[in-house]
Amino acid sequence: MLSRDFLTLEGVGREELREVISLARTHADGRLSHPLDGKTVCLAFFESSTRTAVSFDLAARRCGADVISLSEKGSSISKGESLIDTVVTLDRLGADALVLRHPAAGASMLAARHTEAAVINAGDGCGQHPTQALLDLYALSEAVGGFDELEGRRVAIAGDILHSRVARSVIPAFRAAGMDLAIVAPLTLLPQEADAWGVPILDSVDGALEWGADVVYLLRLQNERMNGRSPRVPSVGEYARFYGVARRHLRDGLLVMHPGPVNRGVEIAGDVVLDGASLVPGQVAAGIAVRSAVLTLATGATHEVAA
Length: 307
Ligand code: NCD
Known about the structure:
The chain is α/β, with parallel strands linked by helices. It is built from 11 helices and 9 strands. The protein folds into 2 domains: 14-128 and 287-306, Aspartate/ornithine carbamoyltransferase (Rossmann fold, 3-Layer(aba) Sandwich); 130-284, Rossmann fold, CATH 3.40.50.1370.
């Protein structure tokens, strides 16, 4: 089996991105019929998820795979079984792909060392979330008229960068697609490595619009990752004023993105979520085609279909 892991987008190249986006288009057009026939996909979600879990499940089933779903509650993880033993068990039961969401950064890398199955990182703590960034690229390329049209667009990524695995995947992916990036965040929500990204760091969404943003990509204030420490913003209202998008920010051609789940009224005003400027519903919809593409590439099924 020609399997391929999807663990991180650090170091991803433009052509690799193009391959996934164009295969996703093929899936969306219904031009691949049951490429995962005979394959077993295990969805192991050891942290909450709505859109990622549902879209992987639908993608795998529509591609014809047998699907096994595991969560912490109801699996032997709750009896104290280790991640490695769980992964080895799923491997021996014949999983061809393991889609893993886990609260610890690096969990997917660890899993990949203990199985022949292709491991797809569906979000690991504050680490990476590669399929989110891939579906964002897909949704954005559909909105602007194709992958090559992404080149030179200005994207401001705003919010809780410190705790965001989405940011850590979106930044290298958007950059590899040729887009210009800026970060919009208070210093308390920036990781130390932000300096090394070599992107402008702006202090408000208004500042991002002055910088010439074509897209504002918002991130959720991830309270659950703040480990009960003292709040990193003085008040949610003040945070929303500087780092959230409101209707007054909308202007011709500006696109607003958010991976969800959304804190309405914090990083994005309630009346902007479903506005014509918002790609949020399109991002969700892109999940099935992109995750179908990732599953077929990960399991080597594309090559088998082409052969
Ligand atoms: C993100 C996640 O879980 O990392 N959501 C998602 O997968 N669509 C972002 C978030 O939780 O804020």
